[in-house]
Input
Amino acid sequence: MTAQTCPRQHQRTTMEIASLEPSLYTVKAVFILDNDGNRLLSKYYDTELYPSMKEQKNFEKNVFNKTHKADNEIAFLEGMTIVYKSSIDLFFYVVGSAQENELMLMAVLNCLFESLSQVLRKNVEKRCLLDNLDGVFLVVDEIIDGGVILESDPQQVIQKVNYRADENPLSEQSVAQHITGKLAMTSNIMQSAKEQIKWSILK
Output
């Protein structure tokens, strides 16, 4: 048993340090609370962790009570490792198991914060976040998929949601609308190309 476990553990450590490849179920949950501890956004990737909404909110309340006045960036609660960051009236949390690499969780947290900072034009506060919640969910989904870390580079995240810093803020044009527009444009270009080929053949 030991001989089988060691290589696997070595492989895991190498992957964590090297490139955050999407092969490990690292993140148990991500949530954002306001400065009263109320939920603004949450995603739980381990369905057995807190299966009901009530359990999730109780956990979030306990986490908030332990962290909102603390100066640390890491907390341990209910067998979980929690990394967190605050900005104005928001608290950002990334949750992993007690055995999880804190640096990995911190990389996810920093990527989330920096990506949202760009998307929200550095207005990382409650009102702006609520106005752009669809875009915020897109950012989260580009960083984590089912608990697996997909990306830790904020610039890559922004590109993947098809958002550019020099375009209009999400309040004026949502990421979803932007992507839809891009898809429509691509479809029109392809249709035009097909028409040109057809007429070329007919000639």
